[in-house]
Fold this protein.
Amino acid sequence: QVQLHESGPGLVKPSGTLSLTCTISSGSIRSSNWWSWVRQPRGKGLEWIGEVHPGGSTNYNPSLKSRVSISVDESKNQFSLMLTSVTAADTAVYYCARDSPMLNWGQGTLVTVSS
Amino acid sequence: DIQMTQSPSTLSASAGDRVTITCRASQSVSIWLAWYQQKPGRAPKLLIYKASSLESGVPSRFSGTGSATEFTLTISSLQPDDFATYYCQQYNSFPWTFGQGTKVDIK
């Protein structure tokens, strides 16, 4: 069973850049066509951020497209999220996930935007 | 964007009850509809994909029906482990979008 694990800073300053990495274990990043990021503000619903193909192609949510970048590092079996110009509204639990629909999920990591 | 609307937002039920959650799409998503279960502090878990296909390992008391704009998730006999929040998600058109969730709690 593919396992995913998110890592990165839990606190980001307003106007800064949020950077997270998802490490895939018990499987290869080439085992699936698409790898996604999804976020969930506390007590609220799920928002799809975007996805990356192992070859590097991406699809993004237009609501975040101007600020988001998702990339893949096959050599490390990882994919990453960068979100620029963050505000308090970007405070959420961030999940990485495999496939569409999302079959496997990481445990999630809380990112707080605060000075 | 395709808007996904779930009803009800909260559902109070007892163990053994038959429970039905509805998800409506603002435009057709064909059969590209998934259902997830989420418990507090945990990641969502895929239950149903392609509207009615049961994910491996998911109990058969869960079932999904529907197509185009109207879908249902049914739990035939609610078990204690099923008290959770359920989300639908369309993956027909970008951006993928989720319903707002339906919380199933103890009556």
The two ends of chain B are 35 Å apart (CA to CA). Chain B touches chain A through 21 residues (CB under 8 Å). Chain B has no helices and eleven strands.
